[in-house]
Amino acid sequence: MYSLLPQDIGQVLISVHRATANVDFLIDVWGKTSPVILTGGFSSDSARRVVDVEHKDKDIIIGFGRYFISNPDIVFRIKEGIELTPFNRQKFYNKGEEDGYITYKNSEAFDAVKEVEVVS
Description:
The protein is α/β, with parallel strands linked by helices. The chain contains 6 helices and 5 strands; from the N terminus they run βββααβαβααα. The protein has helices at 16-20, 24-30, 44-54, 66-70, 74-80, 108-119, and strands spanning 2-4, 8-9, 12-13, 36-39, 60-63. It starts with a strand and ends with a helix.
């Protein structure tokens, strides 16, 4: 089951707690039999809260779109509580430009861990 929560307005993140209440009936029906994928306006903290606290007994997955583009190390950032890099819509799919879609940087913490793993 996939549900896009309608609270993402540009870079503004509206309370996900309020928005997930709109799909609680879906989570109740599907949350223990099949993964429920929720997307739309989640921050790192709100994603962790929904999965680990509000619906910890359910099979919930949080999907990221634009923030996935601007954070190539998004899984690491969420796990470590590192702030997400804001996305810039002007850099999405800008054919021929030097800066954009594939030039967003990893967090310094991710690069440091990566360095240690390569050296070890």
